[in-house]
């Protein structure tokens, strides 16, 4: 039997009618009412959970939108082009850089194929990149795109696989960077480098000619002595020839014995005959000396043609020192302490130039000294040969020590030096995988050390 109960007879917390805002309900027994209270509590919990889930969903949705906006902003700001394609090459997404390149709107680009924008000659290369990208490999290559205003733009492309949320490959992602301007800049840089090399070769040739000019003065002294000697002997032999002809003519014409004897004494035929052999020997010696000087000049041609060969360093050193001293007309004491049988694989003319430049600089450094000296030594150091050229000149200032091998740097007065001698010396030594250094010695002058690999 159902019983109606006034809500005022029960506690407010247990009044179900109050909870559902009804004026009155049928009374329930204790178990039924407890069940409904439990249901309402469960509903309140579910509702609260829904509110929390909705809040979390709105927060995550806001974060997702923010992340999407951030990614879109980053993609839009990237100067490199970005293209997302399907397996058939159909474009699904591009960034503004690509739209700017082709001069089209995004709506017209989406749905077209990537191959529509590549020139015909690069079609196979584009297919290769796309195929490799879809297979999961990352490939790089250059593609020429049809750009706006009927232009062609070369891009360095990189192709990788495009995945979905389940890591399934859907297509490929291509990124690219325009390199047309870069190539033009590279070509301009390459051309400038070639012009610089040409100018460098001209400067080197000019310095070679200057070096030859400095040595010619010494060679002129060297040639003058044997040539003068030969010329004097030839003049004497010519005079002897005339006396012998006169004597032989008299003999052939049947002159008497007394007349022939007088001619023999008067023309000094016996002295002539005894003097002819020494004169001829001296003349041949002078001619040999001239021939040797000419050979040295040929070695001093600085030619780089032909293969390198083993160069006798001791012989080249002594010849270079002799020529440098003659060219400078130096009064300094020059000493050589050189080990024999030291050979380097080189062009002999270049080794001449290295030695002459170093010795000439040392002689210039002591030119104004009363007791100036220059010492040159060569020693074997393991698999290398060390050449040391030192002097007792004023030395090199510490502020200039790092500049001596720079082109056009010189401490000489204007017109006395080009500033290229030590730079060329440095370049030649570097070409032979050698090393050249400079320091001030204890005597106060400069000391140059050159290391060159020994010939195998």
Automatic annotation (TrEMBL):
The keyword 4Fe-4S is annotated on this UniProt entry: no
Keyword set, alphabetical order: ATP-binding, Coiled coil, Nucleotide-binding, Phosphoprotein
Enzyme nomenclature, EC number: 2.7.13.3
Annotated PAS domain residues: 67-142
Occurrences of domain Histidine kinase (ranges): 218-456
The keyword Transmembrane helix is assigned to this record: no
Residue stretches in coiled coil: 40-67, 182-209
CDD domains on file: HisKA, PAS
InterPro entries: HATPase_C_sf (IPR036890), HATPase_dom (IPR003594), His_kinase_dom (IPR005467), HisK_dim/P_dom (IPR003661), HisK_dim/P_sf (IPR036097), PAS (IPR000014), PAS-like_dom_sf (IPR035965), PAS_4 (IPR013656)
Gene Ontology molecular function: any one: ATP binding
Matches recorded under Pfam families: HATPase_c (PF02518), PAS_4 (PF08448)
Catalytic activity reported: ATP + protein L-histidine = ADP + protein N-phospho-L-histidine
PANTHER family reported in the protein's UniProt record: SENSOR HISTIDINE KINASE, TWO-COMPONENT SENSOR PPRA
UniProt protein name: histidine kinase
Gene source species: Ciceribacter sichuanensis
